[in-house]
Here is the input.
Amino acid sequence: MRRLAVRAAAALLVALALAGCQRLLGVPLTGTWTGVYEPVEGDASGVLLLDLQVSGSAVSGTWESSLPGTLAQGSASGVVGSLLMLELTSTTVADCSFHLLAEQRGDRLVGGYTADCGAVPGGWVELSKR
Here is the structure.
């Protein structure tokens, strides 16, 4: 029984160490990520650029996005563990923020987002490391 407890504790320590290192398959989360986002409603897709910095489990940075005819930008803040959770606050649209939840898969971030911008729908996002 003691042997099992020691193995479980060792596995937990390894998992916590890996979650805090901001690397998956050798790709650091810090840097520039770019790709597309697609709202769940409508046919439009947009381009999203994230410039992220990581300190411990805290993530900060900036973002820019575009849909045909619309540009937006702002600040990003959040945390990283087994998943990346970000709040993207707009500096170009008053009272507008987005909540992004993504998984890092090597040099890609894949996930979804919701919006606090009235009738703006949530959707999916896939970004690649530059």
